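Input/output pair, single chain:
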Amino acid sequence: MKVSRRTVLASMAAAPAMGLAGCQSTSGLATSGQVAAPYVSRSGLYALKPVNDGFAAVLETKDFGVLANDPFASAELKSKLDKHLILHVRPEAPLTRPAIGAAAYALGYPRDGKVMPRNPGAAPVNGAVPRPPRNDYGEFSFIADFGGPAEPVPTVSRKPRYIETLHTDGGAYSINTTIDVPPASPHTFANMQEAYRTLPRHLKQIVERSHALHAGLATTSTPYDELPAFDAAKALRRPMVLEHYNTKAPQLYLPKNPHSLIEGMPEDEGRAVIAELWAHVNTQHNRYMAWSGTNEAMIWDAFGTTHTNPSYRRDKARTTWFFVIPTTRELTQAKIA
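Output:
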């Protein structure tokens, strides 16, 4: 299988730094480290181009549905995802719900469909009433539809939602498919294993022995600066360094709500440390940024990475799908040598 010019060009995209408020710079795009040679699968169904020192890979295939339904190829693909953490899928044939659903099953999505709520519909936009959920997709209704028709251009500015900054999805894997979407911002990912490895010594000493008390997150539409206040009765106690499900490597695990605390630290000090940790994640070298274009899919490790939700032009009709592949594995504190 030949590798197209589009795959080669994709390898040139490196992720820029992003501030705590989610502002992104598009200047200075360059390849991170040496460019790896493309990998052509033994099945001949796809080619893979690692980018950004192997953190992410661009996948080209003639028909993703054929790939996802081939037992050998889909198993091999899972191993590549576990290695690279992000697969940017760029097929020739149109992506379909059965194709994306087959990939979900190969990655462990339960076939009974009971773990995740059926297609929840889109969140409100600028105070508008959300569209009713679509439930006519049969077996693949778990692939939530977040697209919609063109909408009037907003006349008032809105505050950024917390999901527009780096966050974790809380599952095993996530899949976002853009069938026909005019993007307004890129999709950005950070490697939380690398974030831990590159921590300054004083921060590494704190996180290795500490638990964070995570304040609540409300809804995905909640602006970052309006997240709930800390409530000790509802806070979730979590280690700040977790063991990755598959690699067993230690990775950083941070609370998203800025009102969260670090157990045993004065409130102001703990919040300052959490802010410093997020600043490190937001500016680390090993990250991936890309526009998810028409007929493309992003598949990523929802536990080992954090990501932003890219924005889209609301004055254009769009078709985009998203869902999380759940996991039953428990969070385990990493064993530090």
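Residues 267-283 form the longest helix (17 residues). The chain is about 20% helix and 20% strand.
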